Amino acid sequence: PPACPTTFHRFLSTTVQTHDRNSGQFRAEFFNAVNWGTLGNPTTNIASSNAGRILSAGAGRQVQFALKYLF
């Protein structure tokens, strides 16, 4: 099967004209939008009680909002 990408970034943006030369912009950014896990490497020390365990992972889904007023 094809490998899944580890991250999937998307954004939504809209601009609204308020007056003759003024406008506002709203933006939403989604990082790792589908929340696929990015697992770390397993512990390779066979003398450890955590041998073979994956003890770390990458960041989960993050969302960022922005509002901008242009004049």
Could you please describe the fold and organization of this structure?
- The chain has 71 residues and is mainly beta.
- Helices cover 0% and strands 37% of the residues.
- It contains no helices and 3 strands.
- The protein has a 3-stranded antiparallel sheet with strand order 1-2-3, with no helix packed on it.
- A hairpin with a 5-residue loop joins strand 1 (10-17) and strand 2.
- The radius of gyration is 21 Å and the shape is rod-shaped.
- The mean pLDDT is 84.
How are the elements arranged and paired?
Blueprint lengths: L9 E8 L5 E9 L30 E9 L1
Antiparallel strand pairs: 1-2, 2-3
The global form is rod-shaped
Largest sheet data? 3 strands, antiparallel
Low-pLDDT stretches:
none
Helical amount: under 10%
Radius of gyration: 21 Å
Number of helices: 0
Strand order of the largest sheet: 1-2-3
Q: N-to-C SSE series? A: EEE
Structural class: mainly beta
